[in-house]
Give the backbone structure.
Amino acid sequence: MKTFKMVRGMRDFIPEEAEMLRLIEGKARRIAQLYGYKEIITPVVESYELLAAKTGEEVRARMYAFKDLGGRKVALRPEFTASVARLVATTMRNEPKPLRLLSIGSLYRYDEPQKGRFREFWQSNFELIGSEKPEADAEILLLTNSLMKSVGLKNYAFKIGHVGVLRGILSREGLAEETQNRALQLMDKKQYEDALSLVKDAGASEKCLTLLQKIVKVKSSNISKVLDEMKKLVENCKEAYEAVNNLAKILELVSEAQKLDITVDAGFARGLEYYTGIIFEVYVPELDIALAGGGRYDRLVELFGGEPTPAVGVAHGMDRIMLALQEQKAPLEFQGEKTVMMIPVSEALNQEALRISEILRAEGIPVEVEVMGRKVAKALEDANRRGTSYVVIVGERELKEGAVTLRNMERKEQSIVKIEELAEAIRTGPR
């Protein structure tokens, strides 16, 4: 018989892993509720043209793109922001601003599979659309911090930069946007020498090259020091200087609200082309991949036919957060419900076992019914192995009295309980 394997880069989540992923998703939904974000659901398949417009060459090259049966070129979404911007530019164009939007789901990129990097991955995506104020950028940083804290991550840190600084320097030289995009993509990969060569070949002055060489080395967790250094370097470049001031204001707002572990990296760039302002990523010491990343994109909605609309957002890698928690040996504590196993002592009592199970489920109590035909002793062993909270044993003698046997698996204690009192006994008893 042929054995089928998973498609490379995809993976299965067994029940414990799926539960952990959904728990992280639940935390993200709770953060959305606390900050006032409303969920939207966009298609997994979008037009290739939409997804390719401003994602960056690296992402474009790794999209799952194909022609559908109608001959249209489409692709699986590699990220959420393009779909959100399309929705805001069309269906939601007249909605009052700001819009606070949440998207959760799977995304697809044809990356080389490795630790923490798969071709199908899971994200919670938050977008704050309609405000150009630094308070909006600060909110995205703070809600990201809230999520990382709520899942129990330790020693996570933010790396923060501002695309406006690098673009300001390059724009002053009159370099085309396409050239700037390629240079920033090389910087994103830490290929600074290649980026400088590209800029030089495009006609940049020696003064510009010297400034870029200096600025990409500016990096520190001493925020005031690094901002002062950046200001001195770009004081003669108006656009870049304004970008540093914008970054300073955002970080000031954040520091007044929460204490975050932040490193400002002036040479930091991200591969997506649509960024116009602050950019950031979140890391833990145990992994060399970002757990979250985002930034400001003020021209994307307009590119897709909407009104000029400022926006800022972040994507949290839920499966990467799960991996980080596993690496830190601090997985999420499951706030599990009390679970019940229903065991009839004979096949003749199966119907009663099903009836009583439905009574408990109607009261919101999860119940598994023994369906393997095991004897009571074997069924109890199975319930114990599964970590079941309670076992209800349905026996003929007890049923005549309108009762069952309720066994507390942790305490190894049992008692006879009336069926109408069973739900309350389970709810009020210890786990």
